[in-house]
């Protein structure tokens, strides 16, 4: 059974699809594509069925990442089918932990930037939606910086499963 990671932001059109694309690329680069599944969702359903924001698509394309995406809302039932639920900011973290049906499910919820040792104490990936392209570029840098640490954590979890 694959290890499953879901990235979650508010509307699933900016930050979480960006994190999904970047992390999926990392998984492919290291040959874990068959062992790890990656997806994303929003805490709210405002944009369900929509593609990613055009600025998200622009920075992903410029960075060499895939950008095909359709927004959807996170469902409580998904906790049973996800090993990690990665929140993009503290508000998402609180919302997801409140939704978690069990304490074990709440433990699956982590902040993305907690995997970036250089992040310091500011672990939020800020919402770029109301700003310009520079905010999306900054989000991409933050996501990329945290992805290596997340990849290390997923590798360790896979090794733990094999033991």
From TrEMBL:
- Molecular-function GO terms, alphabetical: protein tyrosine phosphatase activity
Under which name does UniProt file this protein?
A: protein-tyrosine-phosphatase
UniProt enzyme class: hydrolase
Q: Which SMART domains match?
A: LMWPc
Q: Which Pfam families match?
A: LMWPc
PANTHER family listed in its UniProt record: LOW MOLECULAR WEIGHT PHOSPHOTYROSINE PROTEIN PHOSPHATASE, LOW MOLECULAR WEIGHT PROTEIN TYROSINE PHOSPHATASE
Alphabetically list the UniProt keywords.
Hydrolase, Protein phosphatase
Q: Which family does the record claim for this protein?
A: Belongs to the low molecular weight phosphotyrosine protein phosphatase family.
Cite the InterPro entries for this sequence: LMW_PTPase, Ptyr_pPase, Ptyr_pPase_sf, Tyr_phospatase_low_mol_wt
Phosphotyrosine protein phosphatase I domain location, by residue?
3-153
